[in-house]
């Protein structure tokens, strides 16, 4: 831990707090996001219960996990649940996944009629099953297809802002972010988000913040920087280093929803309090569990909590042994019994701040359809899933991405 009271790694020991007026709110049409902080869309993670939990700690934009257009339009029950919200969630933000302009236009029209305040589109999914059909992170390879998709969404969204979220490109040989960003801007996107890794990199290595600065220097609309915000001070460093207009926070908040309070503090010029001790974290985890059971029902809610227990306890003494037991919980009562045995006074371990959560460190060779890299001018939408069973298989693949 650094000298003085700040709970941070050395990397952030001397980072100054935000000065008054240093950072502007993120403006997306009528929406004013203060502080300029966005919860990243994460499949299997940013459902309503987690978004609501995070929002208790601080303001910002809390985006849903990706919702597939075909599943949504066909009335798939799980898709509908994942797209759903509760009164009071404001602004309500949804990330959509699709590759057909007609589907996306129709979906956005319905979402806006339901009262959704912001729509983002996923152009960054690196999953093999998706890119090998030309979807997800393969879409920006074809700028004219990006144009058709964004145009269809913007037209349907009317007063509601539409943003895109993409990666740097396919791999070191094929960079797509500059062209896709410019096209999205021309078609009326309100902002673009850049996860500064290629699809080949998946979640490995460090995000390339220089690419965020580069994109910012080429666009007039806001640029949202994404990649490796593990500590609240990383957000200030990213914004100062790149000039981006907001940060998107992904894995750093897994099992650490109070990160949003710390972000709110540093953007307001306040030194954040140290993170909660294990006793308080256990209470947060139980609260999360109760919300999940209420939203998904007892079985599905508790099964999903298993992965969360490992994120909440990451880095604590004895957590490896504890996690094996946590992975077997069958009910809220099991969860309560396990947390009752924890040492509530144990302080948050400093090394857990930057411990990676949620995804591994492997890289991949991106699979694209035959001849795809040579057909960049083509704007034909890739074939998506149409049958109910096919959609279920896609959604499972997407959830693993
Ligand atoms: C479990 C998990 C699920 C994800 N699902 C999505 C998703 O549905 N849509 C999306 O655009 N990105 C998704 N991502 C990528 C994140 O939004 C984010 O771009 C990435 O984690 C990099 O940010 P980070 O370094 O702060 O984690 C996912 C990431 C994780 C870890």
Structural account:
The protein is α/β, with parallel strands linked by helices and 401 residues long. The protein has 2 domains: 21-274, Aldolase class I (TIM Barrel, Alpha-Beta Barrel); 278-347, Orthogonal Bundle (Non-ribosomal Peptide Synthetase Peptidyl Carrier Protein, Chain A), CATH 1.10.1200. It contains 15 helices and 11 strands. It has helices at residues 48-55, 69-73, 77-83, 101-114, 128-131, 143-157, 177-186, 209-218, 232-242, 259-267, 278-296, 298-312, 319-326, 332-340, 388-399; strands at 26-28, 31-33, 37-39, 61-68, 93-97, 118-123, 162-171, 174-175, 191-198, 223-226, 246-249. The strands form 2 sheets. The protein has an 8-stranded parallel beta barrel with strand order 3-4-5-6-7-9-10-11, surrounded by 8 helices. The chain has a two-stranded antiparallel ribbon with strand order 1-2. The two termini are 34 Å apart. Flavin mononucleotide binds next to strand 4. Flavin mononucleotide is lined by residues 40-45, 65-66, 95, 122, 124, 165, 195, 207, 226-229, 249-252, 358-359.
């Amino acid at each position: 831990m650094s000298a003085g009271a700040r709970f941070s790694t050395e990397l952030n020991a001397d980072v100054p707090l935000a000065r008054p007026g240093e950072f502007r709110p993120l403006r997306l049409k009528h929406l004013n996001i203060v502080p300029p902080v966005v919860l990243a869309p994460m499949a299997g993670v940013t459902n309503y219960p987690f978004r609501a939990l995070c929002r208790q700690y601080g303001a910002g934009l809390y985006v849903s996990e990706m919702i597939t257009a075909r599943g949504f339009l066909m009335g798939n029950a799980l898709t509908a649940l994942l797209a759903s919200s509760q009164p009071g969630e404001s602004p309500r933000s949804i990330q959509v996944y699709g590759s057909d302009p007609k589907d996306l236009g129709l979906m956005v029209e319905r979402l806006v009629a339901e009262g959704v305040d912001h729509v983002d589109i996923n152009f960054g999914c690196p999953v093999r099953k998706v890119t090998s059909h030309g979807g997800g992170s393969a879409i920006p390879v074809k700028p004219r297809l990006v144009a058709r998709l964004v145009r269809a969404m913007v037209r349907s969204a009317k007063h509601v802002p539409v943003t895109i979220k993409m990666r740097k490109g396919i791999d070191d040989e094929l960079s797509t972010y500059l062209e896709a960003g410019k096209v999205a801007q021309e078609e009326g996107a309100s902002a673009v988000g850049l996860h500064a890794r290629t699809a080949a990199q998946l979640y490995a290595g460090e995000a390339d913040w220089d690419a965020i600065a580069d994109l910012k220097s080429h666009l007039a609309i806001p640029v949202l920087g994404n990649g490796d915000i593990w500590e609240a001070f990383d957000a200030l460093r990213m914004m100062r280093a790149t000039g981006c207009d907001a940060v998107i926070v992904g894995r750093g908040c897994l099992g650490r929803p109070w990160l949003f309070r710390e972000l709110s503090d540093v953007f307001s010029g306040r030194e954040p309090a140290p993170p909660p001790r294990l006793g308080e974290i256990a209470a947060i985890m139980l609260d999360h569990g109760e919300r999940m059971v209420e939203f998904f029902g007892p079985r599905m809610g508790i099964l999903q909590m298993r992965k969360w227990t490992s994120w909440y306890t990451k880095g604590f003494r004895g957590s490896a042994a504890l996690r094996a037991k946590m992975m077997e919980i069958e009910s809220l009562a099991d969860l309560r019994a396990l947390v009752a045995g924890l040492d509530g006074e144990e302080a948050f371990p400093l090394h857990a701040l930057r411990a990676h959560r949620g995804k591994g460190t492997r890289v991949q060779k991106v699979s694209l359809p035959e001849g795809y890299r040579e057909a960049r001018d083509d704007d034909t939408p890739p074939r998506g899933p149409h049958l109910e069973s096919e959609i279920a298989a896609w959604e499972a693949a997407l959830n693993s991405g």
